[in-house]
Amino acid sequence: MNPAILFFIVVAVITVVVLWIVLRPLLIARDGASTAAAVNTNVDAIRIELSEARRDQKLGLLSESALVEAERELESRVLAEAHMEPSSRAPRSKRTAIALGLTLPVLAIAGYAAVGTPVAVVPEIVRPPQAASPANADQQMAELFRLAEERLKAEPNDAKGWALLARAKASVGMFDGAIEAYEKAVALTPNDGDLWSDYADAAAGQSQGKMDGKPIELINKSLALDGKNPKALLLRGTYEIQKNDLVAAEKSFTLAKSLVEPTSGFAQIADNALADIKNRTGSGAAPAGTSNTSPTAETASASDAVLVSVQLQLGTDARKAAGVNSAVFLIVRAAGVDRGPPLAAKKIAVADLDKPVMLTAADAMIGGAGLKPGVEVTLQARLSVNGQPTAQTGDWQSTKSTAKLPASSVKLAVDQPVQN
C-alpha cells in the first residue's frame, strides 16, 4: 500500500476514536422514561416530607401556621417537578458536541502543519527534486563552520573544539581559518606534539607546500615535544628534500616509516619520498655521513624533469577583475579527489601568465609523493582577486583537466566565476 494512503487511514482511525471518547458523554440520549422516573422519585420524596410535617404538627412540634407554610412550599416544589422539560439540557449538550467535533480535527491538522513535516508523507515521485550541488554543499559546510565558531566564542577555552575546527578547515583547504583555530588550540594545550604537527601541516598548505619559515618552526616545536612524531618527521623530511639535504631527508623518512603501520597512508608517503630520494641520487641510498648540498647533473635531471607544462589564460571578465594583489593558483590533485591538501600547488603572478608553468617532482607538497610519472592527476587554475589561497566569491577559475604524467602541454582557460 502507498505509504501516504496508509498514513491518512491511520490518522482517520485515530481521529474517530478520539472524537468518540471525547463526545460520547455529551451525546448519550436521555429518554423520557428515565426522566419521568427521576421526576416521580422527587415527588415521592416531597410527599414523605409533607407527611412528616403533619406528624410533627400533631405531636406539637410544629405550629398550625408553620404547617400551612410548609405545605405551600412543598406544593410549589411538586408543581415545579411536574412541569420540568425532560430535554431542557439536551440542545446545549448537542451544540457543544458538534462544536468540539468540528474544532478538534481542524486544530490537530493546523498543529501538525505548523510543527510537523507534512511533506514526509508525500511519495518521493511527486516531490520536487532537490538536487545536491557543490555550491549547496559548500554553503552547508560554511554554515556548520559558522555554528562551530559561534559555540567556541561562547566557550573559548575548549581546546578540543578549536583543534577539531582547525583540522576540519585544513581538510577542505581553508588554511587561513585553520591556522587561526590552531593558534587558539596550541595556546590552550602547548605540550601536544600531534597538535603542533597538524598546525605545521596547515601552515605548509597555506604556503603552497614550501616548508621555509613558519612551517619548519612549527615542525621543530612538534619534534621538541615528541622526537618520534610521524607526521612531523615526514614534514621535516620534506623540508630537507627542498633544501637538497638528501641524507638527512632519508633518515627522517626512514624513521617515520618505522613508526607507523606498513599499510598506512604515512607509510606510503615515506615510501614515495624514499623512492624520490633514490631517483635523485641514482642509488639505493645516499652515502652515510655525506650531504648532497651540491647536486650532481644526474640528481638535478631527476628532480627537474618536467612532468607537465601548463599554459594559463585569463578570460576577458577574469582579466578585468584582476587587480594589483591578484594571483593565479595552479592546483594539482590526484584524479577523482576533490578535497584535502593537493599534490602540488603553485602561485603565479598575473604578469607571468604568458609563460608556460612547468611542474616537476620538486613541486610536490611532500617529497614527490604522488607527483611522478605514471600518476593520473587533475589540474585546475583559479584567479584569486585578493591574492589569497582560499577560494572566495568573485574569484575566477578554469574547468578541471585530467592528464597522466608525464603529459604534453595542458591549456587552462580561467573564465568561470567562483560561487561559494
Query: Which secondary-structure class do the elements indicate?
Result: alpha+beta
Can you tell me the overall shape?
A: elongated
Largest sheet: 6 strands, antiparallel
| Domain module count | 3
The total beta strand count reads: 9
Topology as H/E string? HHHHHHHHHHHHHEHEEEEEEEE
CA-atom Rg in angstroms: 43 Å
* CATH topology group of the largest domain: Serine Threonine Protein Phosphatase 5, Tetratricopeptide repeat
The CATH architecture of the largest domain would be Alpha Horseshoe
**What fraction of the residues are assigned to beta strands by DSSP?**
5-15%
CATH class of the largest domain: Mainly Alpha
- How many individual helices? 14
Helix content: 40-55%
Output mean pLDDT.
77
Give a written overview of the molecule.
The protein has 420 residues and is of the alpha+beta class. It has three domains: 3-121, no CATH class; 135-281, Alpha Horseshoe (Serine Threonine Protein Phosphatase 5, Tetratricopeptide repeat); 305-417, Immunoglobulin-like, CATH 2.60.40. Helix content is 54%, strand content 12%. The chain contains 14 helices and nine strands. The strands form two sheets. Strands 2, 3, 5, 6, 7 and 9 form a six-stranded antiparallel β-sheet that branches. A three-stranded mixed β-sheet has the order 4-1-8. Helix 1 (3-27) packs antiparallel against helix 4. The longest helix is centred in the first third of the chain and has 27 residues, at 32-58. It starts with a helix and ends with a strand. The model is unreliable at 30-35, 85-90 and 284-301 (pLDDT under 50).
